[in-house]
Structures are given as structure tokens and as C-alpha cells.
Amino acid sequence: MLLVVVAVLAVALVDRSPSKVSASGPEPVAKPLPGAAGVQQLLAGIPQRGNLLGSPSAPVSMVEYVDLQCPYCALFETRAMPTVISRYVRTGKLKVEARVIAFIGPNSSAGRKAAIAAGNQDRFFNFMQILFLNQGRENTGWLSNTMVRRAATSIPGLHVAPLLAERNSREVALQAQRFDAQKTAVNVQVTPTVFVGKSGGALRPVTLASPSDADAVVQAVDAALR
Asked: Which of 32, 125, 205, 212 is deepest in the core (most CB within 10 A)?
């Protein structure tokens, strides 16, 4: 099952066929973005609350700092995290907190606001994964209002209008500020940056040999489970 999920996500990285618009209705609906079905399969049934993924009582915790425009983050999320999610999060051993930061450019900030708004509907990780699977080049304007809308409409159960309305709310702005404060407190200099440890205890940084290094995270989680 794990290999199937990873394969679905890997295929999505190269499947960038244009969307088709139906002429049968007054409001054309874009085809879901590539990879949307794989993301749904990967995350279906796993508890989400805001920017938290997994059982609240999981014995091990992971915190990740990512930028939605960061290509290394895209590699980590689409190649390493499916293994971590399937092996540890789905089985109740690990909970993940994603803290999205924005230092690459204005699109990073716009994407972060939309991700936080998606988290208000407990679809933070779906939204984040879909954007990483369809990531464009840094600061080229790819993370536009159109992309945000297409990503949102690609997620089952996500109500698009509230997400779009809440992006510029005070609540979303405060959460973004918290992410920035947390980044500064632990001196995050690069993305992705990952911390793992026993829940309720100190989390230790995980050194990634490459952006797609799942083994380093697996070893850190296994050590924390002992």
C-alpha cells in the first residue's frame, strides 16, 4: 500500500495536463490539479486540526518548517513525507505540526495565508501537499489567486468561498506571526527544517542528507519511540 501511495504522488509530479472546462453549465469547473487524488488517498481518515496532522495522543511529535515556494520543501513533502505519514502518522505513532514560513517572496506569504485558511477547515495538509505537487519556479507568480482557487477546489470537503474570504483575516495574520516567532525562537535558517522527539519533551533537529531523505526522519522517529 505504501509503494502505491508514493507512486501516485510521484506520477503527479510529471502529470501536468491542462484542465478541461465543461460547456454544460454557467460556472465552468476546473479539472482537479494533478496529484489531488493521491493526496486524498494519502491523508484520508487521518485526523487534522489546523496545522496538526495525526492523533493528538501520538507518543512522538514532529515539527516541520517549510516555505510553499521552496523546491527542496517540495521534494521533502512529496517524496519523504508519504513514507512518514503512512508508516507513523496513520498508525497513531506520530503527530506532525507544519509551520509554514514565508521568506522566498510575496507568493510565499499569499500561499501561507491560504494554507492557514484551509487549516480552519482541517484541510491544511491537503492544501499544502497539492501546492507542492504543482509547484512552479520561485517568484514567477505561479502561486496566484487562480492557483489558490484551483488547489482549494481540488480538495473534497473544502469550502472555497470561506477559504478565500478568510485569507486576509486577523486570525490568519496572527497565526502567520506565530509561525514566524516560532521560527525565530529555534533559529531556523533553511527549509525544510525538521524536529522530532517524544511528545511533551524536547524535540531535536533532524539532519537531512538530501531534501528527499525519509530515512533520517524514520530513524529519528524510531529512536523517539524506544
From this structure: 125
- Fold category of 33-225 in CATH: Glutaredoxin (3.40.30)
Instruction: Give the start-to-end residue ranges of the domains of the chain.
Output: 33-225
Q: Which residues contact residue 63 at a Cβ distance below 8 angstroms, ignoring those fewer than 6 apart? A: 96, 97, 99, 194, 195, 203
138 phi and psi angles, rounded to 5 deg:
-55, 135
Nearest to 116 by CA among 48, 49, 52, 176: 176
Strands 204-206 and 94-100, bridge-based pairing = unpaired
- Residue-wise pLDDT tens digits, 39-75: 999 999 999 999 999 999 999 999 999 999 999 999 9
Q: DSSP class of residue 87?
A: I
Q: Average model confidence (pLDDT) for the chain?
A: 90
Beta bridge partners of 50: none
